[in-house]
Design goal:
Blueprint: E1 14-20, E2 36-37, E3 40-41, H1 42-50, E4 57-61, H2 65-69, E5 74-76, H3 86-96, E6 101-106, H4 114-121, E7 129-133, E8 136-145, H5 149-157, H6 163-168, E9 173-177
Parallel strand pairs: 1-4, 1-6, 4-5, 7-9
Antiparallel strand pairs: 2-3, 6-8, 7-8
Helix pairs in contact: 3-5
Length: 203
């Protein structure tokens, strides 16, 4: 795997999943991936970073499929209605992954960069790898071996809905980031985009 320094290049053995299947409740029900920041949709910022890193880019979405299909190698959707949450998207992504590891990212972290993703990928092994930021687990920034799919499915079937609790039960490796690292900033509320939000027609 890459070391996190040097030129951006392909991450061997990694499919990448962008989670864009949420309800967007804090965005007034808008499809968060297509909210604009600094002149482009959040999903387009993410795509620019991750596209060079994989030949298997998966987007989890529950609407606007035609728009997302232009950006991805594969699309997955929740198998049940009602927006059951990101753990479902992760499980569906693991089912679809063509590589032995799945790098999981949210669609609304446009300041993420390739060196951080290379750092995650460099820890690949039999256990999940999760970022910890200021002492807090960040389950939507994680690297999951595809071999762990049955264990996550078992947790889902037993009623688990939290990605963090599900992954913590699998004894993850932590990649620690210091407080103030802005690469994980999630633009998931209108107030956070107030100065740069470009209004779109309703999706």
């Amino acid at each position: 795997m890459m070391s996190g320094t040097g030129p951006v290049s392909h991450l061997p053995g990694c499919s990448i999943l962008l989670l864009a299947g949420g309800r967007g409740q804090r965005m007034g029900g808008r499809d968060k991936g297509w909210v604009h920041w600094q002149g482009r949709a959040l999903i387009e910022h993410m795509h620019q970073v991750v596209r060079p890193l994989t030949t298997d880019l998966i987007i989890s979405c529950n609407r606007n499929h035609q728009r997302y299909r232009l950006l991805a190698d594969q699309l997955v959707s929740d198998p049940v209605a009602g927006y059951p949450g990101p753990l479902t998207g992760i499980i569906e992504g693991l089912k679809a992954a063509r590589e032995p590891f799945l790098l999981v990212l949210p669609c609304d972290a446009p300041q993420i960069d390739a060196p951080l993703l290379q750092l995650l990928a460099a820890q690949a092994g039999p256990r999940p790898v999760m970022l910890r930021h200021a002492g807090h687990w960040q389950p939507l920034f994680s690297l999951i071996p595809a071999s762990l799919l049955p264990l996550l499915q078992q947790q889902w079937q037993s009623g688990q809905r939290s990605p963090q609790r599900a992954l913590v039960q699998l004894n993850p490796v932590a990649v620690e980031l210091p407080p103030g690292d802005r690469r994980l900033d999630n633009f998931n509320e209108p107030a956070m985009l107030a100065n740069t939000l470009t209004q779109e027609s309703a999706c």
